[in-house]
Write a structure and sequence with these properties.
Helix content: under 10%
Order of helices and strands: EEEEEEEEEEEEEEEEEEEE
Number of helices: 0
């Protein structure tokens, strides 16, 4: 169990299974944040509880194949690879921000109805397996975008049936009002966000609030 209410906790040590016949499970509790930097190999489930904390995966956890559940009030992010099939529950949050980076998923990703995604001007979230977008999720846009154009939100291996490509758009932290409508389109391998774009590398964007 990784608990506590402090921010910035970092675990650099490897989390393995004790043996081939015994698996490790990970439970994140408390309102604080934890970051895993190692290439973890545990095969048990990872559960983020409903206390409002976050777990950032910065290592390559492709071998950590247990299911991952992000419960209401919790958040999952990082710039590494999440190995297990991941579900963001109603009230849970997926982070792809300038501070946390953009996660990749070696298996499936399901964003349930009522779940949230914070997206800033970062690389697309990559899903090697099936991406499922259930009706009534929320996409919150934040810092770094420019007005107009488009950017890739997700790349995926397979898109689940009847994806919700009309989420609730939250632009309270965007820093400007888009001149055109915000929308999502499916290309067959990517979900594209229309109405804002990521500036070219090396170009800075000043956000005035």
């Amino acid at each position: 169990t990784f608990s506590g209410d402090s921010e910035g906790n970092v675990l650099n040590a490897l989390i393995p299974d004790p043996s081939a016949s015994t698996i490790t499970t990970v439970f994140k509790s408390g309102t604080g944040s934890w970051k895993f930097t190692a290439d973890n190999t545990y095969r048990g489930p990872t559960t983020l509880n409903s206390s409002g904390g976050s777990l950032l995966i910065d290592g390559d956890q492709t071998a950590a194949t247990g299911n991952v559940t992000v419960n209401s009030g919790a958040a999952l992010g990082g710039k590494g690879i999440v190995g297990g099939s991941t579900t963001v529950a109603n009230g849970g949050k997926l982070l792809a921000t300038l501070e946390t980076g953009s996660p990749s998923f070696a298996a499936d990703l399901k964003i349930n109805g009522g779940a949230n995604m914070d997206f800033e001007a970062v690389d697309a979230v990559t899903v090697a397996g099936t991406l499922t977008l259930v009706n009534n999720w929320t996409l919150k846009l934040g810092d770094g975008f420019k007005n107009g154009g488009s950017t890739v939100l997700f790349s995926y291996g397979t898109l689940g049936a009847s994806p919700d490509l009309v989420p609730t758009f939250d632009v309270a932290d965007l820093g400007f009002t888009p001149t055109g409508p915000l929308s999502l389109t499916d290309t067959g391998s990517e979900i594209v966000l229309n109405g804002v774009r990521v500036p070219p590398s090396g170009m800075s964007v000043m956000v005035v609030r």
